Amino acid sequence: MTTPSPATPRPLRVGIAGCGAISHNHLTAFRSLDGVEVVGVCDIDPHRAEATAREWGIRHAAGTVDALLALDLDIVSVCTPHPTHEEVVLQAAAAGVHVLCEKPIAVELASAERMVQACDEAGVKLGVLFQRRFWPAAQRIRAAIDDGTLGRPILGQCSVMLHRDPEYYSRDAWRGTWANDGGGVLMTQAIHYIDLLQWFMGDVAEVYGRINTYKHGEHIEVEDSATAVITFTSGAMATLEASTAVSPSLGVQVRITGETGASASLTEFPEGSDGRVDLWAVSGKVSTEPAHPGDAEPNVPLATINGQLIPHHTTQVRDFVRALGDGGEPTITGRDATKALRILLAVYESSRTGSPVRFTPLSESAQPLAQVGG
């Protein structure tokens, strides 16, 4: 008598909503995993959906999210313009489909909260792409905070000094508009590093910030530059500067000083390259490497930036698939992603009103270095 072999599990069925530039990263990541099948793509431009399906050998090209969800999906990957994320996520949740969404989770806090609530109520997972958390350099700094090498962070600095040509904004009508992009450098570029900063530093209590447009005003209505002072519920403080008016680009630096007095920083230069620990000042010794190697090309095309991030997209996609398999949570949930959005929206609000935006009272258990004035 022949013993029947165990049934082969059905592959997880994935659909990609939106066939713009970043969808290439999602397609590559999902296609690299065992037990996963990309069964469909959709786009409001049916020709682009069909072209993507042909290029990748995908069976179905849809013109609507409803048609995509009708393909009996397990996961939908959201690569649509920022303000449309909520609509896609709510449709997916109603259909019982898990969601992996590009950053930012939304462009309004209430929208993000509705997305999280809808997925909770539907019992589906919601993950949001912040792939730079998976850099080994970022993981090393997080570990040094957790194991006491740095200890509780007390000071932080986040510098996002990037280059964008005017053509970056002018080639797509939605770029650089409040209605269709949701913001400028903070919403589209700096949000990745705001996420890293708050992941290292903890929950935020207050934000005081300013935005301006210095270089790209002929092409955008949103900010190309911003600064902020951020106070955390622990009493820690950090500064933020961000711009796409820099030429040549200086890349990104995130530096943390902990209560032990030790400091560490990472640099992403050129943009899109892996973050590197360029400063490790621990136990009385300082180890450094050049933040800006002289032989590096500082201004990098967007396609190159996105392409270099594919390995980390893949790591996060694998983590999301793992969460579906073991019933746990993805490393970066919708609630996690809402934190970075809340911070940058507070910079916009503070710049508009001229006043700091207070999230919650400073924790009574915190031990700030100085009393925060009223």
Automatic annotation (TrEMBL):
<dbReference type="InterPro" id="IPR052515">
    <property type="entry name" value="Gfo/Idh/MocA_Oxidoreductase"/>
</dbReference>
<keyword id="KW-0520">NAD</keyword>
<protein>
    <submittedName>
        <fullName>Dehydrogenase</fullName>
    </submittedName>
</protein>
<dbReference type="InterPro" id="IPR000683">
    <property type="entry name" value="Gfo/Idh/MocA-like_OxRdtase_N"/>
</dbReference>
<dbReference type="InterPro" id="IPR055170">
    <property type="entry name" value="GFO_IDH_MocA-like_dom"/>
</dbReference>
<feature type="domain" description="Gfo/Idh/MocA-like oxidoreductase N-terminal">
    <location>
        <begin position="12"/>
        <end position="128"/>
    </location>
</feature>
<dbReference type="Pfam" id="PF22725">
    <property type="entry name" value="GFO_IDH_MocA_C3"/>
</dbReference>
<dbReference type="Pfam" id="PF01408">
    <property type="entry name" value="GFO_IDH_MocA"/>
</dbReference>
<feature type="region of interest" description="Disordered">
    <location>
        <begin position="354"/>
        <end position="374"/>
    </location>
</feature>
<feature type="domain" description="GFO/IDH/MocA-like oxidoreductase">
    <location>
        <begin position="139"/>
        <end position="262"/>
    </location>
</feature>
<dbReference type="InterPro" id="IPR036291">
    <property type="entry name" value="NAD(P)-bd_dom_sf"/>
</dbReference>
